[in-house]
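Continued from yesterday's entry.
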Amino acid sequence: MEVTQTQAKPRRELPPLMTLSEAAATRLRSLYEGGQQGKLLRISVNTRGCSGMSYQMDWVDEAGPTDEKVSSQGLTLLVDRKATLFLIGSVMDYKEDKLTRGFTFENPNEKGRCGCGESFHV
């Protein structure tokens, strides 16, 4: 009886949990150096809005036991472990126009957003 070995398929590399655009890194760097010096930005996903989920950002003094550390563009931010499956491959950006300014998320996991842009669903 001949025994053959089968080679396991190589695992596909996962995309980074989250990355920062240059604009987001510039803005976050200025916040870290300014009024939020010594703090870290923590990103989580909460149930809220008409589409079901929304991004939440909070300043914290240190990483919690369920936080994942993300390094991008030379900066560190935290992601709540419960939000990781919803955020894999996301790019955090910072946009300014005549009426609004703020951080935005380009999330490949989103299947849709509400009309006002406050919430999303996967």
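--- second protein ---
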Amino acid sequence: MTAYISIFITIVLFSSIETFSKMLTGNVDPFLIAFIRFFVSGVILLLIDIKKIKQVDKKDWKYLFFLGIVGISVALGSFHLAINGLSAATGAVIFSLNPIFSSLLAVFILKEAVHKNRVFGIIISFIGVYIVIFGFNKIDLTNIKSVLLMLVASIGFGLYIAASKPFTKKYGTFFTTGIIFIIGSLPYLLFVKSFQIKNSGTSIPVLLYLSLITTGLAYTLYFYGLKRVPIIVGTSMFYLKPILATIFAVFLLKESPPYYFYLGVIIILTGMIITMKKVSNK
């Protein structure tokens, strides 16, 4: 139960990222946001368990560098670029595809078994996600560049989640997450066009929240939970993200969800119950 609570808290925190990142649009370069988020939290997490650096097998360093570049530099760099061209809701639903990718990759990377009820639950939940965001309309693809960037973010994040699980078990959550964050954050500096932070009175607190809470704390809780449950079960809770992102928008932006939002919530929760239901070994 502790694992599920940790993952749930993570999803709540992750769900606020789009809203708070939107607050920085025009005030902070998106690559600078990404760098600050992952470098600051990475250093803090690494310092908590810095002694592990001497225990890393030489052959594992190349995988840690790969995860840093693909999972942080590419995937979440794409996320911060895409969010400027998409609504928070649209970005949330595309990024919420990552459980599908991480679950598929877990089959090949971690040799995790895929049971029919869990696959069915994921499909049901995704239908609910679609209804929450788009109702019964077609997806708006007017900004195809941002859509494709968010899709890259979703695939890369799915790979990162699946491939990093063995290392969090081997070296611990703090060290593994911290070193990957630091490695992945450094390439962002090559693409920052301006290091200026406008409206610092508002921007700096938001940056600190994104760095320490939605990144450092959230990822620590997430990998703590994923170490204890199958990838397909843990990542399925990501389907709560569009629901929670909408709730943040209601309270912070005073938006009112349409009628189909509530139908989608029911469908998502149904799919999650199916996914997390204990599978019989008989």
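Residues 144-171 form the longest helix (28 residues). Residues 2-114+140-231 form one domain. Will compare against the first tomorrow.
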